[in-house]
Amino acid sequence: MLYSIFLICSINKESIIDVEGFVRTVDQKIESCSQHDVELHCEQVWVVSSAAPRLPLLIEDAVRPETDDALATVNQDTRLDNRILDLRTTTNQAIYRIEAGVCKYFRDYLMEKDFIEIHVPKIISAASEGGANVFTVSYFKDKAYLAQSPQLYKQMAITADFDRVFTIGQVFRAEDSNTHRHLTEFVGLDLEMAFKFHYHEVIEVIGDMFVHIFKNLRDNLQEEIETVGRQYKSEPFKFLEPSLVLTYKEGVRLLRDNGVDMGDEDDLSTPAEKLLGRLIKQKYDTDFFILDKFPLAVRPFYTMPDPTDKKWSNSYDMFMRGEEILSGAQRVHCPDLLSERAKEKGVDLEHIKSYIDSFRYGAPPHAGGGIGMERVTMLFLGLDNIRKTSMFPRDPKRLTP
Amino acid sequence: MLYSIFLICSINKESIIDVEGFVRTVDQKIESCSQHDVELHCEQVWVVSSAAPRLPLLIEDAVRPETDDALATVNQDTRLDNRILDLRTTTNQAIYRIEAGVCKYFRDYLMEKDFIEIHVPKIISAASEGGANVFTVSYFKDKAYLAQSPQLYKQMAITADFDRVFTIGQVFRAEDSNTHRHLTEFVGLDLEMAFKFHYHEVIEVIGDMFVHIFKNLRDNLQEEIETVGRQYKSEPFKFLEPSLVLTYKEGVRLLRDNGVDMGDEDDLSTPAEKLLGRLIKQKYDTDFFILDKFPLAVRPFYTMPDPTDKKWSNSYDMFMRGEEILSGAQRVHCPDLLSERAKEKGVDLEHIKSYIDSFRYGAPPHAGGGIGMERVTMLFLGLDNIRKTSMFPRDPKRLTP
């Protein structure tokens, strides 16, 4: 529809228009627009697509810092219920460009290091980790499950001689957790590699990969990071090169020195993780670190025990701003040891027979890990909720849009 | 375990060994190995991981051309049941490197053209295309579905101002089809873009993208393509630059001229598609072509009708070796027309209310399409079964490994 100049103010907000006119330079700098030196003299305006007259939320409210008490802001459910409007804010436009960057730099680094991208099934015949927290699917006349992790398939690709693999795809967790950092469906950035002498080769690759991601985000998406910071204030993300690696024991010592009462082999609670992040930030000035050699007791049966002391294991977690964003380990690649460890952990050998059997035809020592894409984006930007970095989030209470 | 030189022949095939020794040049070229000019003088051999003494299949059988009648080959189910051994063939090592290339060149081209990578949910609250052929998931106390296509979410990203998006992810189809080209779970390479003047801008981008993929596979993965060709013979894949675009009408005329009895607006049967592929190869010497302007009657309700003649639509399919690998269209972006088209097609408006509502706040004209990754790899290489290009395929009868 062609509009006369006098009717333009009647066009609904958020409509899409075509404009025919002339761009003219101006004598006086225009302060109220993002273009300071030119203005557009319209001759004709067409409405390509008209928005409904009443919008469920206003973009200017949705982009306002939550600390700005005097003016309206938009709560999270209203945002998510009207996600296509909410996503139009400059903040969200920036967040999802940064998230695309996380994936790009993850892949770029790994492909440069001879990793091969693979794709693995999400519908599986047996619940991967014992059956808890798994979604059930009707599969023709059978029952199937949604994969909680691509781990078995990454490992099979390694035993199938692919040497170094990564895969990006949905991960499903039927956990009834309504926290700031849990989703029932998220994007896993997973990698697995055979190593030559020691699993620390893998820690080094993953640590360097994170540095590659952080540096490229910082250098190539600076404007987007600043845009997000205007709505959601946070300290710039700090990291060291090479990455800081501490042992679990060192981490626990640091916590104990600061008043936390815990034993050497106790698992880290979420508050303890948070505190450890703050202590390490104070001491080493980094928001990213790696914790190596977790107690064997707190890790799954497929984790390789430390060959010199079975109290410990060849496993590691990685943290951003005191929250875990990667959990990984050297995996047991010997079927006999795997059966033994499963028995010790009380895992039913019948349920994991095919997993164990997949190591019977020659399997190289290997290690890997899985990263939550949304968590990396959230924590890099210092955001407070994972729903801000999942375009269409899924949690126990939200299945739409 | 350290082995003496005399016991090496007792090491089981497919075991993984470490060798310590010296590389020495030789006077006479060695014909029986891939290294012709040097040989390895072992001093010590360790078995890192021992394979079971009996293998369910032999790699030399698994890599043999199926035309070689005199010697053993391995049938598909045995291969898939023992996938980690089967994947060790040079052929499979090559196939999955080529498939990784398909994804890489798809992304590279689109990112170069300012497309943004997005991730969209696979668990959805309503069956996307009316409820047929959809897998059901138990979602806590509710019922949910596995997405048959990311289309709605790509379109929402477009209406949310992202302008050009792509997404790579699992697509689920509960079709009980046991054919050479159907899987219940496959990887979709999907894209969607707003255009300025005409949906042919989108056809051009997608056509150029395929040329980019084909050229890079041909030039950068030549050795892998030859390796696959040694086991599975086929003609090299041919394509034109720019891509050949024919109208549906022209396609039907070509078929009619060659004895096929069909009306202007009849849908193409699979055999007709195959024949059309052969006729176009003869006439234009290309294995890739685009068929534009399908009859409106054979396309879904969300397809934009041709504005000049409602018999036709702004929609297209793309073909490789006579098989469809992309289906796409300009989408209806106006909620009133969308409701009208749904009614004409007998679609229940209640079920698609949220789909229609997503266009109520300003939506630019846009078009896109979805590509089956495994099909592209299969047809580029001239393979006869999609199970050869899915690392761990899923069909109505196979859920393992």
UniProtKB/TrEMBL annotation, chains A, B:
Gene3D superfamilies: Bira Bifunctional Protein, Domain 2, Nucleic acid-binding proteins. Keywords: Aminoacyl-tRNA synthetase, ATP-binding, Cytoplasm, Ligase, Nucleotide-binding, Protein biosynthesis. Signal peptide: none annotated. SUPFAM superfamilies: Class II aaRS and biotin synthetases, Nucleic acid-binding proteins. It is an enzyme of class 6 (ligase). It catalyses: tRNA(Asp) + L-aspartate + ATP = L-aspartyl-tRNA(Asp) + AMP + diphosphate. Pfam families: tRNA-synt_2. It is found in: Cytoplasm. Its EC number is 6.1.1.12. The keyword Methyltransferase does not apply. One of its GO terms (biological process) is aspartyl-tRNA aminoacylation. GO terms for molecular function: aspartate-tRNA ligase activity; ATP binding; RNA binding. Its main location: cytoplasm. GO terms for cellular component: aminoacyl-tRNA synthetase multienzyme complex; cytosol. The keyword Ligase applies. It comes from the Eukaryota. Belongs to the class-II aminoacyl-tRNA synthetase family. Type 2 subfamily. This is Aspartate--tRNA ligase, cytoplasmic. It comes from Mytilus galloprovincialis.
